[in-house]
Structures are given as C-alpha cells and as structure tokens.
Amino acid sequence: MEQIEEMKAMIREEIQSITNLEERIVFKNLMEGVFLELYETNVRMYRMLEERVMNDLVYDVNRYLIRTGIMERGYLDNSHHLMSPICDSDLETQVFEISEVRKKLEEEGRFCLTTVFLRCDAMEVEEVLKNQDNFTGRLKAGEEYPVSISLEPSRRYRQELEHLYHLFMKNGIPWKTINAPYLFKMADICITSLPEEISDDEVITSFGADFGEYNQFVQYDMIPIWNVRHLKLESVGFPVACSDHENYEHVISIRDYGTDHAYLVEEKAGIRSVRQSGEKLLVTGKIANAKKWDVFMIRSGSDQKIDRYTYPVMENLRKDGFAERFQEKTRQMVKTKGELERFIRGFGLEEFIEYKDCALLEQNQESLETYPMNFFMEDEIRDRSGKKRLVIYFKARGREKWLLRDLASFITSEVQELYPEYECGGKLL
C-alpha cells in the first residue's frame, strides 16, 4: 500500500511538470488506464501468491488461541462476548449444612469451603502453601465457632487445563502451552475439623480466616476466566454412512455461534476426525445415531471499550510469519542461541520479561525458579535421571512483579517441548 501511494505521488509530480494541456491529459489517461492498473494488478497477484504459500505451509498457529484472566465476582458478566468462567460452579451461590461438612470430613478428612486467589510471586505462593496447617478460621452457624483449616492448591482449574489438552489431542490439534499464571495461584480453604457442639441442622452463614503475615496476599471472590465456552449441540439430520462401512459422518450446525471461532468436539466413544465447513462441523466416528454433542468453542475477537479486567489478560499468542510457519512445516530444530531468542520473543511478552541468556548446566549446579505448566504431560520414553539442565535467564521489565516468574514458567514450558532431552527452567536476574 505504501509503495502504491509513493508511485501515485511520483506520477502526480510528473503530470504537474507537463506544460502542454493536451499532452498532460493524454499522459494522465495513460497512467490511470494502463500503468497504475497494471501495477496494482501485479501487487494484488503477488499478495494472493504470498497468501497461498503461507496457507500451504501450515494452519494458522493462532486459530486456537487461548486467553486467560481473573476477575472479581461482582464485575463478571456471564453474557460476555469473549470470556467465560473456567469452572461454571464459581457462579453458583453455595449453602453448606453442618451435616454435609461432617460427612465429608469423615470420608476424606477435609471439606473445601471456598477458593481464594494468592496475589503474590510464584515462590511466595509455594511458601504460603508449605505453611498450610498453621492457620485458624471462624465460621458462623447459628453462633460463631473456631475451626481448624488448611490452605491447599486448588486442583479443579488445573483439571480443566488437562481436560483441554486431551480435547486438543482427540481433535488432532497440536498442543500449545496455555499461558495461565492465575490458575497456579488459586488455593482452597479446607476445614479439617469441627467443634462437636455445632448442630447438624445449622447452615454456615459466614466464614473468616487469619493467615497471619500472608493476609496481604489473600483475595476472596476472584474467578478465573478464559475464552472457552462449553456448548451442547444436536446433530442436524441423520448420520451418513462412510465408504469404509464402519464410520458415520454427523453434521452439527454452528450458525448461531459464528464461523470465526474454533471448535473442539468431545465424545467418549471416540471420533475419527472433525472438520469445519462454513456454518457446519462435520464429525466422523463410529457413533451410528444422532445425538447431542459436547462442543467447546474457542472464541476469537477483541475486547470492547467497556470491558474491564482486574489484572492483565494473558494469551499463548505466537507471532505468525513466514519463518514461523516454515519452521513448523519442516519441523526444523532450534539449535542456536539466536534461534532460541527469536522463538522466545515470538510470544510478545517483552513488556513483562526480557530474554537475556541461557546456559546448559549439570542438574544440581543451579536451582530453578519456574514450574512446569504442562504438568499433565509425562515423558514416558526418556529417562529423566542424569538429564542436564537448560536454564534460561530473564530480566524483569513489567510492573506486575508478582506475575513474572509465572510468565517465565509459561515460556520455559514451551521451550521444554523443543528440548525434551534437557530439564528446562528459568531464573530472573
């Protein structure tokens, strides 16, 4: 576009330099009707060729982009065009009877009362959870009573991450680590014992806890969100038998939800393939009857002007260009420090942390400050013993200092997929 404008400016200057009126008209018509039209056609054809080459290399790496964030319950809009609660149960107002709490204590030894957000650095989160048994709480059930409590990592959000990973695998979509720092800062407040004098008929009406020096980190009524929405959609018409006489093709309409979004389909009986064709999803599998399907919509779009987020929304975005697609297509290995730096910068997180260097060390030579975000992916083939440690060093740049080690954990989890022969981790300088 810039080159075309420059060309037009040159032609205008040339026209102004022609003094003869008739010659000026002839020259202008020639440029308008022939030269500029030919030039613009060449530019358009080149862009079409470039687009075809890009599309032939590999699919859009950001089509299945996942965004995550966290919001106060009071500001969460369940009709939001882009973001939804990761756990739908977070929107429910729960009422607990003492009899229910006692039964759970007898069966499991603990009862999860509520979930809190720990607004602190990843290493501080680890320190808080190590001291989980040193806290006291008071609940009101008719009267107020002291109770023993513990603070434990909340596993239900991590289970949703793992579930999404298995959905990607079932649908044949390459997995990219989800940049979800807030999910690893959620903790469950669990009651571990109740006073005997509380009647089973009472209902818990309020609760408070004292976390001592960690009170400054604890935030209540915070709900993790992402751009994934669970839908229940019915088959359209009857399934069509495939030529292999084993599988059937089912049609699911997505007209009401939009074709700009990405869709994943879950079926316990197994599916062979999922294709999106216009306003339809074509699902192939051994299911012979029409049914309701569990469909997960990964919503695309941009924030609206009135949207408000408490803390930054994170994405597993990668820069999408020729070099990235060519490397993905050829499965080219990242072998040099320069290639590794380009890979890390591709996440666009320089406003928070900046890559500085990397080093290959013995396992016990230096400690790591990051954790694996793909904790559910186990390497069952390679022997972990004796692995060298690839340490990536980062420099802090962002103001949200308590998020930086989590972002470093996201990056090093992606780097781990590049170098399975090493134990990858990071440190802040």
Structure write-up:
The chain contains 8 helices and 20 strands. The protein has 429 residues and is of the alpha+beta class. The chain has 4 domains: 2-57, no CATH class; 67-224, no CATH class; 228-298; 318-428, no CATH class. Strand 19, helix 8 (404-418) and strand 20 (423-428) form a beta-alpha-beta unit. The protein is globular. The model has no long low-confidence stretch (mean pLDDT 83).
Helix-strand layout with pairing:
Layout (H helix, E strand, L loop, with lengths): L1 H16 L3 H37 L9 E6 L11 E2 L12 H11 L2 E8 L3 H9 L4 E7 L1 E11 L2 H15 L15 E8 L12 E5 L7 E2 L2 E5 L1 E7 L5 E2 L6 E6 L8 E5 L4 E7 L2 E6 L6 E7 L15 E2 L6 H9 L6 H9 L7 E9 L27 E8 L7 H15 L4 E6 L1
Parallel strand pairs: 19-20
Antiparallel strand pairs: 1-9, 1-17, 2-9, 3-6, 3-8, 4-5, 4-7, 5-6, 10-16, 11-12, 12-15, 13-16, 14-15, 18-19
Helix pairs in contact: 1-2
Protein name: Normocyte-binding protein
